[in-house]
Amino acid sequence: CWGIKDRGARRVKINQMKVQNFRLLHDVSLQLEKETTVVVGRNNCGKTSLSDVIKKFLSEKSSFEIEDFS
């Protein structure tokens, strides 16, 4: 689930996201700040999983694998 605001044909801004059952992320909601959002956490808490799901979602070639989902 992505909170996406259409800003015309030139720009789209994601202001919130919810990820369920993707690698270490079982049920995560994230409110994105207007300028910059920083993700900080201990080892093995899901930071890379969060980065990967964003990259995969925004990629022109979706590369989701069955192993990505828990």
Give a verbal description of the structure:
It is a single chain. A three-stranded antiparallel beta sheet has the order 1-2-3. It is built from one helix and three strands; from the N terminus they run E-E-E-H. The longest helix has 12 residues, at 47-58. 17% of the residues lie in helices and 33% in strands. Strand 1 and strand 2 (12-22) form a beta hairpin. It has 70 residues and is α+β, with helices and mostly antiparallel strands. It has one helix at residues 47-58; strands at 2-6, 12-22, 25-31.
Chain-wise SSE layout:
Layout (H helix, E strand, L loop, with lengths): L1 E5 L5 E11 L2 E7 L15 H12 L12
Antiparallel strand pairs: 1-2, 2-3
Question: If you average the pLDDT, what whole number results?
Answer: 83
Broad shape:
globular
Quick one: how many beta strands?
A: 3
Question: Strand portion, in percent?
Answer: 25-35%
Order of helices and strands: EEEH
Radius of gyration: 13 Å
Short characterization:
The chain has 70 residues and is α+β, with helices and mostly antiparallel strands. The chain has one helix and three strands.
Structural key phrases:
70 residues; alpha+beta; three-stranded antiparallel beta sheet; 1 helix; 17% helix
